[in-house]
Amino acid sequence: MNYVYILHSAKLSRFYTGFTADFDTRLDFHLNSEQERKFTYKADDWIVFLKIECESKSQALAIEKHIKDMKSKIYIENLLRYPEVINKLLEKYKDC
Questions:
Q1: Which residue range forms the structural domain that includes residue 12?
Q2: DSSP assignment, residue 21?
Q3: Domain of 40: which CATH number?
Q4: Whose C-alpha in 27, 35, 40, 74 is 20 to 30 A from the C-alpha of 64?
Q5: Do 1 and 71 meet the contact criterion of CB atoms below 8 Å apart?
Q6: C-alpha distances in angstroms, 22 versus 3, 18, 35?
Q7: Per-residue confidence at 2, pLDDT binned at 50, 70, 90?
Q8: How many domains is the chain partitioned into structurally?
């Protein structure tokens, strides 16, 4: 399965958006890796804000790009507040 995920750090008041085919391994990397160059190294309080299950890798990558292109904390918060937006994204990028 492929996922788009959004992590949130209250400490940084920031979101991190990513894509993976192995969510548990990727989350463990963000929470426990010692690599200083990765963005999520800057805080130790990351929580899973949202996880979107996608039908394909190309769909997940397109949705991840869409969310990142919005460059909006409010848009990300609204994804959780209004689940119908996620359904529209899944439909829009269904045949990528």
A1: 2-93
A2: S
A3: 3.40.1440
A4: 35
A5: no
A6: 8, 12, 19
A7: very high
A8: 1
Residues 54, 63: contact at Cβ < 8 Å? yes
The pLDDT score that the predictor gives to residue 47 is 97
CB 94 within 8 A of CB 63: no
pLDDT above 80 (res 36): no
pLDDT number for residue 34: 79
Cα within 13 Å of Cα(55), Cβ side: 10
CA atoms within 13 A on the CB side of 49: 23
- Is the pTM for the entire model greater than 0.90? yes
Phi-psi category of residue 72: left, alpha or beta, with phi > 0 → left and psi -120 to 50 → alpha = beta
Place of tokens 């929470």: 31
Mean pLDDT for the chain? Answer: 94
